[in-house]
Specification:
Blueprint lengths: L14 H7 L2 H4 L3 H17 L5 H19 L12 H13 L1 H4 L7 H37 L4 E6 L2 E7 H26 L1 E2 L15 H7 L4 E2 L3 H6 L2 H27 L7 E2 L18 H24 L12 H25 L2 E2 L1 H8 L6 H9 L5 H18 L8 H5 L8 H5 L2 H6 L9 H15 L1
Parallel strand pairs: 3-4
Antiparallel strand pairs: 1-2, 5-6
Helix pairs in contact: 3-4, 3-7, 3-9, 4-5, 7-8, 7-13, 7-20, 8-11, 8-20, 11-12, 11-13, 12-13, 15-16
Length: 457
């Protein structure tokens, strides 16, 4: 297949160099976007009189035929082609002759590849947003089932205060809701058309950039032709948002790995999302969660690749930028694969409420509530804090919990104590009293559920 840039060079490109230069193995997935962009470009050329109506119709029909043939498997993308743009144009020219050769008027591969990448990533972002919504929905369903599942909340991986499993799950729902916002914001900033910027300086042809932009669903055009072809901020921004999403998935994956261990045994994952051991028959491994945790570093690497690629590039286009697609495509592939397995894994897990409650009853996680009880009765909080710490130390020495202590034993520490303290330090009460906005009480759980359902609707 003849190179689009043939003419200047007299010698053939070295085979190894040709393979090294080729991007068809990566960018071939953008064939639909490339053809769609070319159709819009052809329509714009007709409107401005650069192509006749008959030529434009023939080109658009020819492009439609190429799209159908690829979709139906009648036309295979040539792996020897330099890139998808060269391949589509070569096939069009082969089918239409000189009419096909007119398509590239007032266009460069520089604005063409920038256009295709934006169109493709816009589609992939929509897919990712849909998958995040499904995961948030799965978390909300499990939260609604477990509003009464009291468990320890942790700091430093030490039992801290009682919460519910619903509250824990909805924390991840909030993280993911911010991921939706980041991806949507990045997609909005990306949604401007570079088509018509040509190689770097625009074109002498009288074209209508706004027409092609509107045809392709963009909000407007890139206002500087140099920036239009050299900007890859959108790749960096999307990959950054994806890296944060993976960080959130990795944190939840780590929780699942802990929770499914016998040391916790708070949840059990479906057999559909676990594997066994080749030698230990008792094992049930949370391999899907572990893979998500492991793949997070991969997306971080994609982000660093993009930032490093761009950090020293002068304007405008440089071949370094060919590396953008492999990194950002891999980030989307990885995140979408992880999201695809995560939502059903959450939906199908079994929650062990009795084990959570048993853990909540240990570890003195109602100690803060005891200190608060004293503070509400006029004891300075720091004094109440110290007194409660002394009581906990005494309980540990004597094998008791705060609920087990008699009122007489409490009064040995302070005469302020009365029978009312037992109601306030019960595990259930400790959760129900957390009524401050965003807290662990049932009324707050419902507010959080309502918020997430609104965000994902």
């Amino acid at each position: 297949m003849e190179k689009l840039w043939a003419g200047r060079a007299h010698g053939a490109l070295d085979k190894a160099a040709d393979d090294f230069n080729s991007s068809i193995s990566v960018d071939s997935r953008m064939y639909r976007q490339d053809i769609r962009g070319s159709m819009a470009h052809a329509a714009s050329l007709v409107k401005t009189g650069i192509l006749s109506g008959a030529e434009g119709a023939k080109i658009i029909e020819g492009l439609g035929g190429i799209l159908r043939d690829i979709d139906e498997g009648k036309l295979e993308i040539d792996p020897a082609a330099e890139d998808i743009h060269s391949f589509v144009e070569a096939v069009l020219t082969e089918r239409l002759g000189d009419t096909g050769r007119k398509l590239h008027t007032a266009r460069s591969r520089n604005d063409q590849v920038a256009l295709d990448t934006r169109l493709y990533l816009r589609d992939r972002t929509a897919d990712t947003i849909e998958l995040i919504v499904k995961l948030i929905d799965a978390l909300c369903v499990q939260a609604e089932r477990n509003t009464d599942a009291v468990m320890p909340g942790y700091t430093h991986l030490q039992r801290a205060q009682p919460i519910t499993f619903a509250h824990q799950l909805l924390a991840y729902g909030m993280m993911l809701s911010r991921d939706l916002g980041r991806l949507s914001d990045a997609a909005r900033r990306m949604n401007y058309s570079p088509l018509g910027a040509c190689a770097l300086a625009g074109t002498t042809h009288h074209i209508d950039r706004m027409m092609s932009a509107a045809e392709l669903g963009f909000d407007g055009i890139c206002l500087n032709s140099l920036d239009a072809v050299s900007d890859r901020d959108f790749c960096v921004e999307l990959t950054s948002a994806l890296a944060i999403t993976m960080m959130h998935l990795s944190r939840l994956a780590e929780e699942l790995i802990l929770w499914t261990s016998w040391e916790f045994h708070f949840v059990e994952l479906s057999d559909a999302y676990t594997t066994g051991s080749s030698i230990m028959p008792q094992k049930k491994n949370s391999d899907m969660a572990e893979l998500v945790r492991g793949k997070t570093g991969r997306v971080y690497g994609d982000l660093i690749t993009l930032l490093t690629m761009l950090k020293g590039l002068p304007l405008a286009y440089n071949k370094d930028m060919q590396e953008d697609k492999e990194a950002v495509f891999d980030a989307f592939d990885t995140v979408n694969a992880c999201l695809g397995v995560f939502a059903p894994m959450i939906e199908t897990m079994t929650v062990k409420k009795e084990n959570m409650l048993a853990a909540a009853k240990g570890g003195f996680i109602n100690a803060t509530d005891l200190a608060d009880w004293l503070a509400k009765r006029g004891v300075p909080f720091r004094t109440a804090y110290r007194l409660t710490g002394e009581i906990v130390a005494w309980c540990i020495e004597n094998g008791k919990t705060l609920e087990d202590m008699s009122l007489e034993e409490y009064k040995n520490f302070s005469e302020v104590f009365d029978e009312g303290l037992y109601e306030d330090i019960s595990i259930a009460a400790c959760v129900e009293k957390r009524t401050s906005a965003g807290g662990a009480s049932p009324v707050n759980i419902q507010a959080q559920l309502d918020y997430l359902k609104q965000v994902t609707s």
